[in-house]
């Protein structure tokens, strides 16, 4: 128990919680009131180890004073400045610092406020790029089944999660999907990248044959799908996608909202995976989630094409009131500083073998049907209870929370993605608590 307690709210009705079972929540609310380093604390002060870095976002650990102080300092200097045809110094500095982390030749950064906005922004840039190249017929966007690209109409349409789409009627037209890469039995319990499945990238050739390359603007995928259950790309798969995109003049967009900011052992995942896309979308770790911010980094050629080939006037008719917000820019600079000074990507690579071994130690735990891992991510897939998909994992989440561990669930998959400052005893605590919960539930 920690001595500081924070009162629970009296009114649980006013706040409509996102992506939540609002009715169930009110019966037995799980709440977090404070956070520091690797830990959250409940309103009563009970310690909960953070197995998920918030939502894959507090990569440098909670409550980093470098970041909170940078935000406070900037708030006192200038709270806000308008964004259209008007600049403020810290946004330029933040863009240049983000570009230090992206691959060579990808030095142009467009700021947004979230992953969803970044994904929709990247899709719009792709369309503007093709148009600026004189290829106005390239309006088709290709995503992937089980892809998650946020909740805007662009990302939702290009994404491939039924539950996110079904409630909302029509989707964007001119969208198609590649198959996901998961489910090959020979890949079950693979450590790191699975061996089999590169051939699934060739489905893009089938879509090109179906629609015609001259109708396709871009392909968007997550290098490692996170929120749909940790789907690690098969060896050679992304390279093949890159080759097909290049061959047909299709832009390749990596949604690195999760894999960016050192999560899989490189500043951006593409470097570890040795496949460089034309654009990267990011959010989360960008500011360590201390304030909202997202961004799209684009290859210089993409920027130059849009900016130099557009008629006089505004080149990209897109942006947000809060693009490059001064407080978020300050947080981003402080976050980049931490990633560089503490070599968080190197830390991930150092601890990854230990993490991998600990994750796979649950292989024989009750109801476990698959385990997947890459960088500091792990997915533990459980068999579903007949007629109640997701219920088993939700029970495990609750049990872990009661025992002092925060996990995330998606369907019947338990996803883990701790802060990158994690040490071996934390790894032990996470997997011991989870293993106990699985055994107790059986
Ligand atoms: N893309 C990916 C890969 C994500 O994981 C997420 C969020 N989990 C998003 C986009 C959307 O980000 P946001 O919730 O900030 O809009």
UniProtKB/TrEMBL annotation:
Record-given protein name: Aspartate aminotransferase family protein
Stored Gene3D superfamilies: Aspartate Aminotransferase, domain 1, Type I PLP-dependent aspartate aminotransferase-like (Major domain)
Family that this chain belongs to: Belongs to the class-III pyridoxal-phosphate-dependent aminotransferase family.
Pfam family, one: Aminotran_3
Listed PROSITE patterns: AA_TRANSFER_CLASS_3
Keyword Chaperone: no
Cofactor(s) this protein requires: pyridoxal 5'-phosphate
Organism lineage string: Bacteria, Pseudomonadati, Pseudomonadota, Alphaproteobacteria, Acetobacterales
CDD domains documented for this protein: OAT_like
